């Protein structure tokens, strides 16, 4: 018996696209990729094609009542299947632990259609940086850089070599790849890798917050827009000075106050408004909502600082208004 609560969900067509598209997928293969990391190959239960995707895309997986996001990780997209990798995180809300404990070849899961908040922009050269399980969105980017004929290099850091997934896969690219296990080589020295600003070069990185912070510091002399990052853990949010503010849900004709200890998403859900959400931590991008008026205080881990400065939308699971000002939203 499948131990997962998949039978309670309404399943859309497997060709559905967009944030509401959900589909049933079957695990065709489970592989141990490193200590505490497994990969799952997902296929359509009836052998139909799964929706296509671009490097940087992720899907939601619902398991044990928790929805988590996983990057699609094939270096070369495989027709008819997706690969994700799952790190067992003892401190997680349970999604990754449940997958490790209960998901095997043959298990059926509920997934979303792919979404991409981390697209690979055109460039002549790329510097890829991965920390731990952050290698997963980087693998398809490497494949795409190869197909585009772009120059690229990869710095891949992790705690220990045996905790780092897909090392053999990336090592097959030769000396463009630098593997840095912390227990034998120490932490990655980004100041060395990024000292020289390279023309026509973009930096793409995914990993834990300390790695991304160190990278941002080491690249702050690079042109604005050079660094593109994806957080797989939400950035810490300081909510000590949060105040109440008013939101007009313009599309619904409803106005409500948002208390200091509740999110816009919470209040909108209480009002029965047609929200979309998944992570509720400002990581996945599902709850993006257009801002018609007002000054948003962006607290998500999706947008870059440059994007936040000119954004005409916000992620209502975490973001609020600046200084308690009024917001008018397209909801
Ligand atoms: Fe994931 Fe808001 S629900 S960013």
Please characterize this protein's 3D structure.
The protein has 331 residues and is α/β, with parallel strands linked by helices. It folds into 3 domains: 22-112, Elongation Factor Tu (Ef-tu), domain 3 (Beta Barrel); 117-231, Rossmann fold, CATH 3.40.50; 245-329, Ubiquitin-like (UB roll). The protein is built from 8 helices and 19 strands. The protein has helices at 95-102, 135-148, 167-171, 182-185, 190-194, 209-218, 264-270, 305-310, and strands spanning 22-34, 37-43, 57-63, 66-71, 81-87, 108-112, 115-116, 125-131, 151-158, 177-181, 201-207, 227-231, 245-249, 254-258, 288-293, 296-297, 313-315, 320-321, 327-329. Strands 1, 2, 3, 4, 5, 6 and 7 form a 7-stranded antiparallel β-sheet that branches. A 5-stranded parallel β-sheet has the order 10-9-8-11-12, sandwiched between helices. Strand 8, helix 2 (135-148) and strand 9 form a beta-alpha-beta unit. The longest helix is centred in the middle third of the chain and has 14 residues, at 135-148. The radius of gyration is 20 Å and the shape is globular. The chain binds FE2/S2 (inorganic) cluster. FE2/S2 (inorganic) cluster binds at residues 277-280, 282-287, 300, 315, 317.
């Amino acid at each position: 018996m499948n131990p997962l609560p998949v039978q309670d969900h309404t399943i859309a067509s497997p060709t559905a696209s967009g944030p509401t598209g959900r589909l049933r997928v079957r695990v065709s293969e489970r592989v141990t990729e490193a200590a505490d990391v497994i990969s799952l190959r997902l296929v359509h239960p009836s052998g139909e094609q799964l929706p296509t995707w671009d490097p940087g895309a992720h899907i939601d997986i619902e398991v044990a009542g928790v929805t988590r996001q996983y990057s699609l990780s094939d270096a070369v997209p495989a027709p008819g299947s997706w690969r994700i990798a799952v790190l067992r995180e003892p401190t997680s809300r349970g999604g990754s632990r449940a997958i490790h404990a209960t998901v095997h070849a043959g298990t059926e899961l509920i997934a979303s259609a792919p979404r991409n908040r981390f697209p690979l922009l055109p460039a002549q050269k790329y510097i890829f940086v991965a920390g731990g399980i952050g290698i997963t969105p980087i693998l398809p980017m490497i494949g795409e850089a190869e197909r585009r004929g772009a120059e690229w290099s990869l710095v891949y850091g992790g705690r220990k070599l045996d905790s780092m997934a897909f090392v053999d896969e990336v090592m097959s690219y030769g000396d463009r790849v630098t593997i840095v296990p912390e227990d034998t080589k120490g932490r990655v020295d980004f100041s060395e890798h990024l000292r020289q600003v390279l023309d026509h070069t973009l930096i793409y990185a995914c990993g834990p917050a300390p790695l991304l912070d160190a990278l941002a510091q080491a690249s702050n002399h690079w042109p604005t827009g050079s660094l593109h990052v994806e957080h797989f853990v939400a950035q810490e949010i300081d909510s000590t000075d949060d105040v109440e503010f008013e939101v007009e849900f313009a599309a619904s004709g409803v106005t409500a106050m948002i208390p200091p200890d509740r999110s816009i998403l919470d209040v909108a859900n209480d009002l029965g408004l047609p929200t979309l959400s998944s992570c509720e931590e400002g990581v996945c991008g599902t709850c993006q909502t257009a801002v018609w008026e007002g000054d948003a205080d962006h607290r998500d881990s999706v947008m870059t600082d440059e994007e936040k400065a000119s954004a005409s939308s916000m992620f209502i699971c975490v973001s609020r208004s600046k200084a308690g000002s009024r917001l008018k939203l397209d909801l």
